[in-house]
Amino acid sequence: MTAVAHQSDTIAIHGAQLSGLSRRGFLGVAGTMAAVLAIKGGPAAAAAGSAAPSATTAAGWIEIRADNTVLLRTGKCDFGQSSIYTAYRQIVAEELCVPLAAMTEVVSGDTDRTPDGGGTFGLLRNAQNLRKVAALLREAALELASRRLGVARAALSVRDGILSGGGKAITYGELVRGEALQLTIPLSGDLTMPLGLRVEANPPLKPVKDYTIIGQPVPNPSLPPKIAGETVWVGDVKLPGMLHARVIHPETLGSTLIEPGRLDRVAFPGAQLVRLGHLLAVASPDEWEAVQAAQAVAAGTRWSDWQGLPDQADLPDQIRRSVAAEAAPPREGRANAGDPAQVRGAREHRARYAMPFQKHAPISPMVSLADYRPDGSVTLHTHSQNPQHLRRMIALMLGTGEDRVVVRTYPGAGHYGRSNGGSAGSEDEAVLLSRALGRPVRVQWMRHDDMQWSTQSSAMVADIRIALGGDGRISAYEATHSGPGMQDDRLIGAVLAGLPTIAPPSATTTYGFQSSLLAITDTWIYGTGAPLREIGKGCRHIGQQQSPHGAGLRNHSMRTPLQFQQNCPREIAITEAALLAGKDPLQFRLDHVPDPRFQALLIRLRDESGWTSRPSPAPGARATGQRVMRGQGLALMLRDNGYWACAAMVAVTPATGEVKVERITIVADVGIVINPLQLRRQIQAGCLMGVSQALFEEVPFDRGKVTATDWASYPILTMADMPELKVVIADNPGVTTYGQGSESANALAAPAIAGAVLDATGKPVRRIPLRPDLVLAALRA
Amino acid sequence: MAQLRVNGSERTVTAADETPLLYVLRGELGVMTPKFGCGLAQCGACSVLVDGEEVRACVTPVGSLAGKEVTTVDGLPARWARQRGLSPAPALHPVQQAWIDEQVPQCGICQFGMMIKVTELLEANPRPTDADIKQALTTSGPSPHLCRCGSYAAILEGAHRAARLMAEGAAG
Predict the structure, then answer these.
(1) What Gene3D superfamilies does the database record attribute to this sequence (chain A) (predicted)?
(2) What pLDDT, in 10s, does the model give residues A213-243?
């Protein structure tokens, strides 16, 4: 429809190009101004007006329509924190200077309908793309308005969707009515890499002091349809003619298939058995028949035995042996300075810490649907934090072009990072089964599949030495964090079926976070005076090299990946150092943090939490007996420009090792608060998930497999265990950055609770979770 | 083949009597708010009311429900209207309205079961304490109602607001 003659008329807007001008009157009343993307050589090149739409085509980030409504598209998905429906709409409305109500539509996470790719994490950091695009559109609209109104650009301003100046005014809608304007924006990056695409333009951004929409407690518009039962969740999708499938995974992580069990066609007349290498599946038009038939087949299936995992009790030492044997180059902490090994302290704290494997444990196990068509194209319906990388991996598995694969996403159970590299499980299996059966197939993992065959948050160990000078201050800090690499994004169904996948984690893998190296991700916050060395020593995933499938206990990021596993031992060690110095652990931190934001945060925490200023342990602390002992502990974290502090008050029964968390106070200074209502709910929830991780969660395994199969064998926090919870969002209007939301709240509970147990009993607990048997062992050590 | 009432309608079910109610609701009857969580009565994501009492649809054979009344979240507004003689029925039950007012869910997959359980509680105990609510959602049924996102603090506030809305006779 675009007349070629008019395309040459373009205006430069802060590095972007506005085209489609001079077409006024050619069309009817409809019209838009859309931000489109331009990247040389990348798959998104097709976005800028290709005649043949491909799976990668998307119209762009933001569309302003003639009725003054605005649509935004994002490759990020909602995992329950609502940021794409609340914060993203607020950020765009703020930069465009339109009312929030104008932001009527958010299209998210579909590979054929959204532009930017990358993983769903760090949402406010990634919002800088949308913020810039919105600012570019506003600047373009001001240029257009200047021409249309005959008013100098400098005399114009925008407010509530109206561009005005010199006694004249026009709305966005009037500007775009009858037009097909395109603002082409330069990009860098890669659609399928974790950080996706990046806007390479630097328009002027609205001054923070002029914000009217950011900072408002905007409700989540996706809730009313969910609560009314109108929302189609991924598990609710029904495709015409679809079959329900249940997969049968190997007996252990390294078992190979000897002989499939028999499918009883009399008992299960509608069911079919499919073998894909070392993966079995049963499919039926009737879901309950598929469940029962799969159980029956699984019971009769013979697998080889495999015992390639270490004894769970030996895991910390196994990790130390593995990093020594693999001898990958250690990764250095960013703040490392001097040589702490040369420093001898007046007093020294030396200890070893252990963090367990933990499950993401979504309340509903993964479910995906695929429709593989005779022409070799496939549409996959799922719940993913990184649909573009999932699409790429599905194409790789099928040996086909990425343009043959579309991934559509839906609401689903939160899984806290498990799919930020694309897959959380079941997606590839649905595709392979649809191809094998010639019908759309829905694969619902059962609870045991999700517990035993999904990835998990990685185990890690830390060896920490803190030297104290004669003044009781830290004179040297040394920490070695050792563990398997952060994540393995391979499609596990493809692995078991023997089909192509991305490379397994190693010291040289290049995709995203797929690595056997271990970075130091916890930011050092305790000052620059003393020599400091933090190193990360990585190894391959546990069992990875032993399993014939090349996949053992696969790791994946969860909430504050690696940082939790490094911050928790560090914060417990700092509390222990304070005890050694005879100082109040809060004051000890206050004496060491140079950043005034942390200083203010600690003082606020002391006031808000009812903290008693005194050295640990508490007067009368005991590690034996039936009498309940009480204690206080705290922890700090700096993450993505967010400053976090947490205090825990606990009651410990030494005779049983039982820890009851009575009260948690979290104080957060995240800089600009986009939405205090949603932030508060995110912090409350993240904190309680963190209490769950702190008290209950450790993935149990034997020599062959994860032995947790359900909620009895992998218990999580219940409402009865909920502490009193106080959340303080420290207003800090002087800071002009957006800090991250709830993730840090998860990580703070464990070290704060461990510090409180030390305070209550005088005994350090250096292993998570603080489960009665493990606490008891620590109290008796 | 069983006859049962689902959200006020008489439904004839062709599934075998031993089929769990959850598969009948979601597969045969198209009632999608009860969610599959564990299939083991351990989490509460599939909870429904049977004659006003919360049960786990994932382990309840449909044949055991002949002649009984099944209510899911979809049927809560009509249930409220019938109890209070409201016509037409409001769009939302007060528990649903409270869940929106308090912005209770994070991902929300567990909340259908949570709302069912809180409805059961408030029908019997219109002014529950914190302890009553915690007891209802942990020890009163076959298992605790689990929320992985950790929305328990919001649920507590939602339940208290729902109690106030029900006392006021208000609904959405």
Answers:
(1) Aldehyde oxidase/xanthine dehydrogenase, a/b hammerhead, Aldehyde oxidase/xanthine dehydrogenase, molybdopterin binding domain
(2) 999 999 999 999 999 999 999 999 999 999 9
